[in-house]
Write a structure and sequence with these properties.
The complex is a heterodimer of chains A (268) and B (282). Chain A has 268 residues and is mainly alpha-helical. Chain A has helices spanning 16-19, 22-38, 42-59, 63-70, 74-87, 104-130, 133-144, 154-184, 194-225, 244-265; strands at 93-97, 100-103. Chain A contains 10 helices and 2 strands. Chain B has 282 residues and is α/β, with parallel strands linked by helices. Chain B contains 11 helices and 10 strands. Classes of the chains: A mainly alpha (268), B alpha/beta (282).
């Protein structure tokens, strides 16, 4: 059950998207999100959508995994949709009942909002599916590098993120194990009201936390044994170096952003 | 031969919490480990095996006495990194010592910390993965591998630092028989072909029997020290500190109580069977 969580999981591969520099992908995601919020019309949305579809096709990420990762977010999507349908006012009234008025504009807006969120999330998935967490952290570390001058612990933050990501599957497996162990001794997680269910989680959380602390302690020792002594004097096996395809991607990004801005200025 | 590690009059007490007195593990421990040797350390729970191992690379510092690694004093803070790169450590739980999400990135972690140049790290990582037979898995996620494979990755992570000595703290305790064999074969190859000094802390007598030298510890002292044959033939001593000899020796020992005269130095199953066959035939 818990193993179905795919959020933030990496699919190893050798597609052009996989091979891009993580910095390129991070900046492109930001560019994409900015463009998404600047897009106002069917045409610009279609352009954004086409861009995303092509990126997914090139990355050879199975569509199934993207859809699967989307499942936990259905609630947010539906919620946003309903909010926009009910609370947008406009001119073309379609239905009205019990003092609630539903306008054509509301439906259009709800549709756009949902598509926007869907594309935003898919774009983020594309980043995390095609970039190994370590590459992602390297990219972030490198992009945030200048902030070291302000005494921001950039390397430490990157390391923490990397380890947190590494231990997610391990801890999920452990949670599954603890749950099975508690079930075997008669624990009931599926019945009762909300309060009872929350209470039933305590016997899972306590051992999980204890084991997480024990793991952290052992990991710290193991890291010390491997000469970890902070970011000073550390080198990298894989140096980040921009290649032709990265400049090309940046070019595409600028083109996309410019296109959306131009369309916007024409009111499209 | 020179000594890779020498422990001289080591005393260590775990500090107590608040006002409770600490737990004294060692009072006067002495041990030397020769360069290039394969030493197995045996002992019951709480005899100080793991504590001793942690002294070999400055994770713990002696309260009294000295520990030298390749001639360097472990309590010398300036030598910390040079000591740790010479003595690598592999722990029991493979999950808790893998740092990265991709096998090769994890193996690169040690050399990266040492500040090795990028192209050299690449070479070392590839070489280390080939040595443990995990090169084909270099781009896999560690949590999808078996226990034995994970432990070999952990070993590769140590080899990539090019240590003189590897200390393994019960590396096979959490593995199935197949994983145990994989790890043991890797350790043996490293010792024989690369001349790396191996200190293997273990509960398994059959693993210890593969070493050149066996050190048995009890209550913070060395209780027996010698070749596997010398140590395991002292069955009474082993029993007195709640350890068992390898099954072959136990069998011979039991049979001797009923009038047989079998040698207690037959550690291998085939050897023992042959001796038994000869005895029964006579």
């Amino acid at each position: 059950m818990l193993k179905d969580i795919t959020l933030g999981q990496y699919f190893p591969g050798k597609s052009p998207v996989h091979l891009l520099d993580p910095r390129t992908k991070l900046i492109m995601l930001v560019v994409y999100i900015v463009a998404l919020f600047l897009a106002v019309s069917w045409i610009s949305y279609a352009v954004m959508f086409a861009f995303l579809v092509i990126a997914i096709a090139v990355s050879r990420i199975p569509l199934k995994s993207i859809v699967k990762g989307m499942k936990p977010l259905v609630f947010i999507l539906v919620f946003t949709g309903i909010l926009n349908i009910f609370f947008t006012t406009g001119e073309k009234e379609l239905v009205s009942f019990w003092g609630i008025h539903i306008y054509w504009e509301g439906i259009v807006r709800a549709f756009f909002m949902m598509i926007r969120i869907l594309m935003l999330i898919t774009g983020t998935f594309l980043l995390t599916y095609t970039t190994s967490p370590i590459a992602l952290t390297d990219g972030l570390e490198s992009l945030l590098g200048p902030l070291k001058v302000l005494r921001l612990p950039v390397h430490e933050l990157a390391m923490m993120m990397c380890i947190a990501l590494r231990f997610i599957p391990t801890l999920i497996e452990e949670t599954d194990k603890i749950m099975s162990a508690q079930k075997a001794r008669g624990a009931d997680f599926e019945s009762g009201n909300l309060l009872e269910r929350v209470k039933a989680l305590v016997p899972i959380l306590v051992p999980l936390f204890i084991s997480a602390f024990r793991r952290a302690d052992e990991l710290a020792t193991a890291m010390e044994c491997r000469c970890y002594h902070g970011g000073d004097g550390r080198t990298k096996m894989k140096l980040l170096r921009y290649k032709g395809r990265d400049y090309g991607t940046y070019g595409l990004g600028i083109l996309l952003l410019a296109g959306v801005i131009v369309l916007r200025s024409f009111g499209l | 031969m020179s000594n890779a590690i020498s422990v001289e009059h080591l005393a260590y007490t775990y500090p107590g919490v608040d006002d409770t007195p600490g737990v004294a593990v060692f009072e006067d421990m002495n041990l030397t480990i020769e360069e290039g040797s394969f030493v197995a350390v045996l002992g019951g729970n709480g005899c100080g095996k793991s504590t001793l191992a942690k002294h070999f690379n400055s994770i713990l510092l002696p309260c009294g006495g000295k520990v030298y690694v390749c001639g360097m004093d472990t309590s010398d803070e300036e030598k910390l990194i040079s000591i740790r790169r010479r003595v690598g450590m592999v722990f029991q739980n493979p999950d808790n010592q893998i740092v990265a999400n991709v096998v090769e990135e994890d193996v690169a972690f040690g050399p990266e910390n040492l500040g090795v140049a990028s192209p050299v790290i690449r070479q070392r990582v590839d070489a280390a993965l080939q040595q443990v037979g995990m090169y084909d898995y270099r781009e896999h996620a560690p949590h999808l591998l078996s226990g034995g494979q994970k432990q070999r990755i952990a070993i590769a992570g140590i080899i990539a630092m090019q240590p003189k000595c590897i200390v393994l703290d019960e590396p096979t305790a959490m593995l199935d028989p197949r994983g145990r064999k994989e790890v043991m074969d890797t350790i043996l190859t490293l010792n024989r072909e690369k001349g790396i000094t191996v200190v293997l802390i273990t509960h398994h007598m059959d693993e210890a029997a593969k070493a050149q030298r066996v050190v048995v510890m009890s209550k913070g002292k060395v209780a027996a020290d010698g070749t596997p044959k010398e140590v395991f033939s002292q069955v009474e001593l082993l029993h007195s500190i709640r350890l068992a000899a390898p099954e072959t020796v136990e069998l011979s020992n039991e049979l001797n109580k009923y009038g047989f005269h079998l040698s207690l130095e037959n550690l291998e199953v085939e050897e023992c069977a042959q001796a038994l066959y000869d005895a029964v035939k006579a």
